[in-house]
From TrEMBL, chain A:
SUPFAM superfamilies: P-loop containing nucleoside triphosphate hydrolases. PROSITE patterns: ABC_TRANSPORTER_1, ABC_TRANSPORTER_2. CDD domains: ABC_MJ0796_LolCDE_FtsE. Belongs to the ABC transporter superfamily. HrtA family. The lineage of its organism: Bacteria, Bacillati, Bacillota, Bacilli, Bacillales. The keyword Lyase does not apply. GO terms for molecular function: ATP binding. It is a peripheral membrane protein. This is Putative hemin import ATP-binding protein HrtA. Pfam families: ABC_tran. Residues 1-30 are annotated as: Disordered. Residues 15-27 have a biased composition (Low complexity).
Length: 258, 373
């Protein structure tokens, strides 16, 4: 516990360098309400019923603004997956409110939630989890197609994203022909494809070596700032914390500034 | 929905080619056995099936078989009294063996005695028609031509020694795998009395059955008024033709099993690949794909594969049909092909249902906190 605290404070001190590196001018102090893309308010969640209830989240609150990349760290079993599932509109909390892109998730039916995930949330998973049978550019076009996006616009958006992420030469490759880092960059592009308000990354560097992990995180931070997304990375990987604007610790079912 | 379905097939070609091959073989077999069943059905029953009658009167306790049934002239008059002169026509059926004159080889035929010019008499496809006045003339099914009989030839009955001249051919008139040979009432009467004389001269029942074109009410009345006789439907009469039911039921059982097999093959194939892809479906649901879309993708694949294998299967069967010898009883109409294909598709969709259920039950939450893809 002690060691992790010290490394974290070290990273926090280097935070500004990470932010300036990506050329963002977003100030974390001055946020108008419209800038808040993700808000969890007094969220609690418990698994099980009655006698053997396991409370995982207990009055958790947090807000993430446009252009801000936040890291959430915590030991395993601290509720990181639950937090991500609630923020990602996959799980309805036992108590409390979740708001994504200004829309309250309470009372939405499964179809509405699926639509909201499609348009407002970009997921990046542990493994890249691309569809093995789609070429890189098709991975992006497929997401646009799910969202009924205009085809020409989708093609343009995909080209732009692939270029920004250095994948242009790989756009006709299948995932099994890509390196781990490239795959995760495609996953970043896919998460951004439908221009969501929020990007949620679940241990995105877990299957990458240190350099590739840093690369992917740097690119993610760059896009989050350039496109004004609210980014959340749930991670164990302390090497990528310098690229994040804030580090939050998940402890006792709540988030604290690290 | 085709977007994913087609791209996955393109990517995993081997796997899908294998399943298409199995489906194609099964659909080929379904169509082939169906054609064989129809062909055999025609060979046993087309002479009766193509009659424009809807019901028949046969003797009671004859098991619906024409050959076992005997009706008297007065029963025919009684039937006509109810059904009207146009509604009932007498029908004589007798299986016999003939030879072509000046030839030794025997030919099995089914003799049909009906009124010339009536609605029981089939259309003449080649040669001339029978008339009520001319005797000693018959109309034969074209299958008789395969035994070397041509229009103008004379055939000799083995039992009675009577001689008939073939004046014309008809199409698709066979009975219990024998070509049907049609004669008028006068020849039929002459044949019956010869036959009875040869057997010892007992009282001669005139005909075997009465063909009817009547309403339900008339049929009901006939059934109750005629003594020692009953009204049966055409399909009852057909299934009582010797050999018909046995052939059809065994072939139908094969066809039914083939459909069940194809449903299971598809179900197992898609269920296994769907289980393999469970985590993919979880991911897709997490990024916002609706269950309906994913289920639609699975169904789209089932349809693409079924259409593909059916198209090849139909082409193969048609090629096969063209190559089969004419003596092979095989009949496959466009309508039969279409309805078999329709049934095959329906069965394939049922096979895909298990996978759809599996897709629907996949939880998007599985996508979070898992490394695997």
């Amino acid at each position: 516990m002690n060691t992790s605290l010290t490394t974290e404070s070290k990273h926090t001190s280097r935070r500004s360098s990470g932010a300036s590196q990506s050329g963002s001018s977003v100030s974390t102090g001055l946020a108008r309400p419209a800038d808040i893309k993700l808000r969890l308010n007094e969220v609690s969640h418990a698994y099980g019923d009655g006698e053997s209830e396991l409370t995982v989240l207990d009055g958790l609150s947090c807000t993430v603004r446009a252009g801000e990349l936040v890291a959430v760290v915590g030991p395993s079993g601290s509720g990181k997956s639950t937090f991500l599932s609630i923020a990602g509109a996959l799980l309805t909390p036992s108590r409390g409110e979740a708001e994504v892109g200004g829309r309250n998730l309470a009372g939405l039916n499964p179809q509405k939630l699926a639509d909201l995930r499609l348009h407002e949330i970009g997921f990046i998973f542990q493994g890249a989890n691309l569809l093995p049978y789609l070429r890189v550019e098709e991975q992006l076009r497929f997401v646009a197609k799910l969202g009924h996006a205009d085809k020409r616009q989708a093609v343009r958006r995909a080209e732009e994203l692939l270029e920004r992420l250095g994948l242009t030469s790989r756009r006709r490759h299948y995932p099994d022909k890509l390196s781990g880092g490239e795959r995760q960059r495609v996953a970043v592009a896919r998460a951004l494809m439908n221009d969501p308000s929020v990007i949620l990354a679940d241990e995105p560097t877990a299957s990458l070596d240190a350099d590739r992990g840093r690369d992917v995180t740097r690119l993610l931070a760059e896009r989050v700032k350039a496109e004004g997304k609210a980014g959340v990375i749930v991670t164990h990987d302390e090497r990528i914390l310098p690229y994040c604007d804030r580090v939050l610790r998940l402890e006792g079912g709540r988030l604290r500034e690290g | 929905m085709m977007f994913l379905a087609l791209r996955e097939i393109r990517f995993s070609k081997t796997r899908y080619v294998l399943i298409v091959t199995i489906m194609l073989l099964v659909s080929f077999l379904v169509l082939f056995v169906t054609g064989l069943a129809n062909g055999l059905g025609n060979a046993t029953s087309s002479a009766v099936r193509n009659m424009s009658a809807d019901r028949f009167i046969v003797q009671k306790d004859s098991d619906d078989r024409f050959a076992r049934s005997a009706l008297h002239a007065e029963q025919i008059d009684q039937a006509r009294a109810v059904a009207g002169a146009e509604g009932a026509e007498p029908l004589g059926v007798q299986m016999t063996t003939v030879t072509k004159r000046d030839s030794e080889s025997k030919i099995d035929i089914a003799l049909f005695g009906v009124p010339a010019g009536g609605w029981l008499m089939p259309e003449t496809a080649e040669g001339s028609r029978l008339t009520a006045s001319e005797t000693g003339q018959v109309l034969a099914d074209r299958d008789l031509a395969e035994s070397g009989v041509a229009v103008g030839d004379t055939i000799v009955d083995g039992a009675t020694g009577l001689e008939w001249t073939v004046v014309g051919f008809t199409e698709n008139q066979s009975y219990s795998h024998m070509p049907a040979v049609w004669m008028n009432e006068a020849d039929w009467a002459a044949y019956r009395s010869e036959l009875m004389a040869a057997r010892g001269g007992e009282a001669d029942p005139a005909y075997n059955a009465i063909a009817l074109r009547v309403s339900d009410a008339q049929a009901e009345r006939l059934n109750s008024t005629l003594p020692d006789a009953e009204v049966i439907t055409k399909s009852q009469a057909i299934s009582a033709i010797p050999g018909h039911k046995a052939e059809q039921s065994s072939l139908l059982m094969m066809i039914a099993f083939l459909y069940v097999i194809s449903a299971f093959v598809l179900a197992v194939f898609f269920y296994v690949i769907t289980i393999q892809k469970t985590s993919q479906f979880g991911i897709l649901k997490a990024i916002g794909a609706r269950t309906r879309y994913l289920a639609g993708s699975v169904i789209a694949q089932v349809l693409v594969l079924s259409f593909g294998s059916l198209a090849i299967g139909v082409a193969l069967v048609l090629a096969m049909k063209a190559m089969l010898p004419a003596s092979m009883p095989f009949a496959l109409s466009a309508g039969t092909v279409l309805s078999s294909c329709g049934l095959f598709l329906a069965v394939a969709l049922i096979g895909g249902l298990a996978s759809v259920v599996k897709v629907a039950r996949t939880d998007a939450l599985d996508a979070i906190g898992r490394a695997g893809a």
